[in-house]
Design brief:
643 residues, 19 strands, binds (S)-3-Hydroxyhexanoyl-CoA, alpha/beta, N-(1-d-carboxylethyl)-l-norvaline Dehydrogenase, domain 2, globular, Rossmann fold, 12% strand, single chain, 3 domains, 2-enoyl-CoA Hydratase, Chain A, domain 1
């Protein structure tokens, strides 16, 4: 490999350039190269200041995550970046870090070991390590609070979300924004500097105890079960207690224990799995994608209107239509309210909310879809209705337009057969609420062309969704696996575990919501109808439906419901006991562990079948589906992850 770090001298400034594609990660040798460059500048009498900059589209996106599994397996020594960063910080001449693209994780830590930072306005800066089950491990927890204060450092290290350069400059993390050419601007800035300024010597601004408590509570709520955020909190707070070197030693100890622990392994697995989903053996390299400039949606119900938001939020104009003018009007009113609320609650600036709203146009009929690059059908889940809709869309859609169904179970080939263009037909299964959930199942029919799949994957990226390709079989990946998982939960009830005990066991395991409560939200009559139609043996859930318990929608299902609040109901116990007695099923006691093992094993067993049948391309795709669409705890890596 050619040297990833090189340097040149330009009128008194040494420019050290990192060139380690794709993201200038700190692979072995990279940080050593930067230090060598900085020290070459320090030793050169003609050099007054040093600029460190990234080649290509970014500064440094962090430590090289590909190295972590090797370190965990003991094939590589533990990272020890601090001695090298100390050498940068101790340089006798000003070191300016010139940032663009991403300065994340170890990348931001390198930047903070420099004396000054300048950045292109589009730069993103952050300590996202918690998302990998880690904390910053190269001084981030100690230098960041010295630059931005403990409160802001806590927010960045505990939640892991990056901030934009403008905000970083207001906080003092970035000293100057460079609008034009970054190297030129950085060198000009460097020439104005007189002396180094070590971050470790800055005095930090403490945070009050109640502020720290609030962040701790928020972390517990938003990142339930994750160990790293609370560790990050303790270590950042230590910056206000220990001296700098003690703080670094504390950080190193916690970083190491997290890196070798189970959560980091699981979350690193998900990091790579997420990127793996886009690697599709049936899409030849270099496959051209189609340009989608406008989208259209037919069906303005709960799904259709939320899908419209996805497109509008991503900058794509979208038309929304419905066979019922009243439904369309209601959807447009809902959309307007959505953006008004976003603006009022400070989630969107007024101009941005207005821009997004303006991208969504009501269309009186599908005849107005003549310019669409993609049409999403989101009418009710009825095959004959959907086939009629596809025939109608086929008649009006322009050539090359993708025709997608948002069905969650139905046969894509049957829909494709209603058109004269099966290669353009696919499933795009959004998850509710579609504007919030990251998952998108891209369903490939027998005739769907690779070009159409590649276009859908690219579009998903624009929508900031994680797309997973699924084969065309009832329920695709996610819903297909969810059915036996729920059935296992219902069986536990039939054998004596109370419904709320079942849900609680799975929620303690980390699921966002227990499967019986999920059933109540969806409506118990749905599963009842499916079981009856498929001739499946009845379950105690059918007895609940027959007793008029339909779920949240009529206030009674597995639980009693008051709005979104659920409570246990002795009436359900009676129905269950009678049901089991009638069938001679003896009730027994269940440990939480038994419930979890049984339900998760049902999920895994179905997952194995889904892979065998080629419905999912790989086990890790299933992990991505479950973590991003079904509330499976990310820190466990997904149902198929073996640890
Ligand atoms: C850390 O720094 C710990 C420190 O505290 C030090 C401790 C001692 N390493 O996402 P993309 C690859 S922890 C290795 O599709 P984008 C990625 O796998 C790290 N590889 O592009 C993919 O490869 P492939 C903290 C990495 O433009 C390719 O780059 N940093 C790394 O949508 C393109 O990636 C983070 O957590 C890496 N660090 O987004 C940042 N990063 O093509 C993680 C990326 O073979 N990275 N790759 O599949 C990101 O968030 C995004 O990749 C980024 C670019 C925003 C940078």
């Amino acid at each position: 490999m050619s040297n990833p770090v090189t340097w040149t001298r330009d009128n008194g400034v040494l420019v050290v350039t990192i060139d380690n594609p794709p993201v200038n990660a700190l692979s072995p040798g990279v940080l050593e190269g930067i230090v060598e460059g900085v020290e070459a500048g320090a030793a050169d009498e003609e050099v007054r200041a040093i600029v460190v900059i990234g080649a290509g589209k970014t500064f440094i996106a962090g430590a090289d995550i590909r190295e972590f599994p090797k370190i965990i397996a003991g094939e590589r020594p533990m990272l020890s970046l601090n001695p090298l960063l100390d050498r940068i910080e101790n340089a006798p001449k000003p070191v300016v870090m010139a940032l663009h693209g991403s300065a994340l994780g170890g990348g931001l830590e390198v930047a903070m070991a420099g004396h000054y930072r300048v950045a292109a306005p589009s730069t993103q800066l952050g300590q996202p390590e918690v998302k990998l089950g880690l904390i910053p491990g190269a001084g981030g927890t100690q230098r960041l609070p010295r630059l931005v204060g403990v409160e802001r450092a806590l927010r960045m290290c505990v939640f892991g979300n990056p901030i934009a350069a403008r905000e970083a400059s207001e906080l003092g993390l970035v000293d100057a924004l460079i609008d034009g050419d970054l190297p030129t601007g950085a060198m000009a800035y460097a020439r104005t500097l007189q002396a180094p300024r070590r971050t470790r010597d800055l005095t930090l601004q403490s945070a009050e105890e109640h502020v720290i408590e609030k962040i701790r509570d928020e972390a517990r709520r938003r990142m339930r079960g994750h160990a790293a955020p609370l560790s990050a909190l303790e270590v950042v707070c230590a910056a206000d207690i220990f001296d700098f070197d003690e703080g670094l030693a504390f950080e190193a100890r916690i970083f190491q224990s997290l890196l070798t622990g189970p959560q980091a392994k699981a979350l690193i697995h998900l990091f790579f799995s997420e990127r793996e989903t886009a690697k599709l053996p049936f899409v030849p390299k270099g496959t051209k994608t189609r340009e989608v400039r406008r989208a259209a949606i037919l069906g303005a119900g709960t799904m259709g209107r939320a899908i419209a938001l996805c497109f509008a939020n991503a900058g794509l104009p979208v038309q929304l239509s419905d066979s019922s003018p009243a439904a369309l009007e209601a959807a447009m009113a809902w959309i307007r309210r959505h953006y008004e609320n976003a603006e009022q609650q400070g989630r969107l600036p007024a101009e941005e909310a207005a821009r997004r709203l303006a991208r969504i146009q009501a269309a009186a009929s599908v005849k107005e879809f003549a310019d669409a690059g993609l049409i999403v059908e989101a009418v009710s889940e009825n095959l004959e209705l959907k086939r009629a809709v596809f025939a109608e869309l086929d008649a009006v859609a322009p050539e090359g337009c993708l025709l997608a169904s948002n069905t969650s179970t139905l046969d894509i080939d049957a829909l494709a057969a209603a058109t004269n263009r099966p290669p353009d037909v696919l499933g795009l299964h959004f998850f509710a609420p579609a504007n919030v959930m990251r998952l998108l199942e891209v369903v490939r029919g027998a005739d769907t062309s690779p070009e159409v799949i590649a276009t859908a994957m690219e579009l998903a990226r624009r929508l900031r969704k994680i797309a997973v390709v699924a084969g065309n079989r009832f329920g695709f990946i996610g819903n297909r696996m969810f059915a036996p998982y729920r059935e296992a939960a219902i069986q536990c009830v039939q054998e004596g575990a109370l419904p709320w005990v079942v849900d609680q066991a799975l929620e303690q395991f980390g699921m966002a919501m227990g499967p019986l409560a999920v059933g109540d939200l969806a409506g118990l009559d749905i599963g009842h109808a499916i079981r009856r139609e498929a001739g499946l043996p009845p379950t105690v859930e059918d007895a609940l439906v027959e007793a008029g318990r339909l779920g949240q929608k009529n206030g009674r299902g597995w639980y009693l419901w008051q709005g979104n609040r659920r409570s246990s109901d002795p009436g359900v116990e009676k129905v269950v006991r009678a049901w089991s007695e009638e069938r001679g099923i003896a009730h027994r006691t269940f440990a939480a562990r038994d419930i979890v093992d049984r339900c998760v094993e049902a999920l895994r067993a179905e997952g194995r079948k889904v892979i065998e049948e080629g419905i999912a391309l790989r086990a890790s795709d299933i992990d991505i589906v479950y973590v991003n669409g079904y509330g499976y705890p990310a820190w466990r890596g997904g149902p198929m992850f073996e640890g």
